[in-house]
Specification:
- Helices cover 27% and strands 23% of the residues.
- The protein is built from 13 helices and 26 strands.
- A hairpin with a 4-residue loop joins strand 4 (84-89) and strand 5.
- It starts with 5 loop residues before the first strand and ends with a helix.
Length: 527
């Protein structure tokens, strides 16, 4: 399969999809689109990612993007092989191309099979391309190309929203986002002048739901711009189940930060779509101050090349001043993986994102007083906040003092970093499919945190970027973190909450005005 002019691409190995209907080889004349990821021309300095200084997209491209010589090599090789290059982006080190399947199979030493499976969200049959084993690349690309994504377009992520078991009862114990912003003491800003990116991987939203929701709340509807990626676009409908995710994200963010402009990116839920959406959003003009992602899947379901490429894109985002808020998952410590042992969801496990977990909240909307707040979930629960220890990413320096437990005897990045209400029984009141209902999941707590970030950045007039070095500063194991209300009771399966950081709710839930002052002091001392 792999000729003498091809070399194996490290980290590209794919497993076979089981329990799917095999449809045979993909038509060799059909077109397949893919993204080639290149190395950096220079390593991104750690202080640029974890510090308070940021750079522009042009500066990032010139200093740490793809080398023009590397780009020319890849582009010319693709064109000479019979592929068509659609775009090359030096800043994010990506080349987007397409080719007949026969050309792609020869170029990358791979065989593509067609399979049919049940759509993991909608439950309808859907067809995908599948490959197994390693990819191969031209020998001249060795050390230059770090990933080739999109040849296999299996669903790579799932939305992290949950509907309550008793919808009628949940509406009586749910909250509007403005009520939660008050309960968590958000600063008195609106996110005015800030842009927040929301990443979606399917579905769409019904504008009538949006208009009716904000009219009912007596809040001006946010400015929403939809952007299509890799052929995906807003369905402009609430008919499919994924639209519940999209609607939740937009309404939570818009109601908790009504002054922020929203740019909603719609991409396929393949690994290629995921990377292309992140890179496009991070390098946009104007640059977003926050990015909200409510999708993920266990680390074991990703290739190493995909995780490394996506993590590098998140590092770019941090250097550009973007705080990426990612839901930690809704399946407790197993992260939708039925194999033995706890599992951690990616991209929440990336050290370059703010991983957001979930709680069960009992509070009084009229006085904002909290009666109780515990971990959302319990041992063996399918509906529980994600959290645990990464098997891929090491413990970051900023997390080294908080007592992250080992996983199978190995240390790793702990998830989540922070939390907020997520239990669908005490969830978020949104308007979906023409009616008010309660929706929960860490899909809701992630955009709530993005709203908080936008309020803080409006107030301090500077982007935060990677927030963890600020939030974790001076925090010791077993000790409550300043700016947070510690959550000390409950379990997500394999892990239990306790004093200080824990793998259920991280540092805790926000005390928004206290966090604002912590960020303000940090920016002042580092200026």
């Amino acid at each position: 399969m792999n000729g003498t002019d091809l070399v194996a691409l490290a980290g590209s190995e794919r497993g076979v999809l089981h329990h799917v209907e095999q449809l045979g080889p993909v038509d060799p004349a059909a077109s397949v689109e893919f993204t080639v990821v290149l190395r950096r021309r220079a390593e991104l300095p750690a202080e640029l990612v974890t510090g308070t200084a940021t750079i522009t997209a042009d500066e990032l491209a010139a200093r740490y993007g793809a080398d023009p010589i590397d780009l020319e090599l890849v582009v010319s090789s693709l064109e000479n092989a019979g592929a068509r290059v659609h775009e090359q982006h030096a800043g994010s080190r990506r080349v987007s191309a397409s080719a007949p399947v026969a050309v792609a199979q020869r170029l990358f030493g791979v065989e593509l099979s067609a399979v049919r499976d049940i759509d993991p969200v909608g439950g309808e049959p859907a067809a995908y391309r599948m490959r197994s084993g390693l990819l191969y690349v031209p020998a001249a690309w060795a050390g230059v190309v770090t990933a080739v994504l999109g040849l296999d377009d299996r669903p790579q992520v799932r939305p992290n929203f949950r509907l309550p078991d008793d919808a009628q009862a949940a509406r009586a114990t749910a909250y509007t986002p403005p009520q939660l912003a008050a309960i968590y003491d958000f600063p008195p800003a609106t996110g005015a002048g800030q842009t927040v990116a929301i990443l979606e991987f399917g579905g769409g939203f019904d504008q009538q739901d949006i208009d009716d929701y904000f009219a009912e709340l007596r809040i001006p509807a946010p400015k929403i711009t939809s952007v299509g990626i890799d052929g995906q676009k807003n369905s402009n409908s609430a008919d499919d189940d994924v639209s519940g995710e999209v609607t939740l994200d937009i309404q939570v963010l818009g109601a908790a930060a009504p002054g922020a402009a929203q740019v909603v990116y719609f991409a396929p839920w393949s690994d290629r779509g995921f990377l292309d959406a992140i890179a496009t959003a991070a390098h946009a003009n104007p640059a977003p101050v926050a990015m909200s992602i409510s999708w993920g899947l266990s680390e074991e379901r990703w290739t190493t090349q995909a995780m490394k490429s996506i993590d590098a894109a998140f590092a770019d985002a941090a250097a550009l001043g973007v705080t990426v808020c990612v839901s930690s998952g809704d399946d407790g410590s197993r992260s939708r993986d039925d194999s033995p042992g706890p599992h951690q969801a990616f991209p929440a496990s990336s050290p370059h994102v703010l991983a957001v977990g979930g709680t069960t909240l009992s509070a009084r909307p009229d006085t904002h007083a909290v009666d109780s707040e515990t971990v959302w979930g319990g041992a063996g629960a399918d509906n529980a906040t994600g959290g645990g220890v990464s098997s891929v990413f090491p413990v970051p320096d900023w997390q080294s003092a908080v007592g992250v437990p080992s996983r199978n005897g190995r240390p790793g990045r702990g998830v989540p970093d922070v939390a907020a209400d997520a239990d669908p029984a005490t969830g978020y009141i949104v308007r979906w499919r023409g009616s008010d209902q309660s929706i929960g999941g860490t899909s809701a707590s992630a955009p709530l945190w993005a709203a908080l970030i936008s309020r803080i950045t409006e107030t301090v007039q500077r982007p935060i970027g990677l927030a963890q070095p600020v939030f974790y500063q001076g925090v010791a194991a077993g000790k409550p973190a300043p700016g947070f209300r510690d959550i000390t009771q409950g379990s997500n399966g394999a892990y239990r909450a306790g004093a200080g950081w824990d793998p259920c709710t991280g540092l805790g839930v926000p005390r928004g005005n206290d966090l604002l002052e912590i960020v303000r002091r940090h920016l002042t001392t580092r200026t």
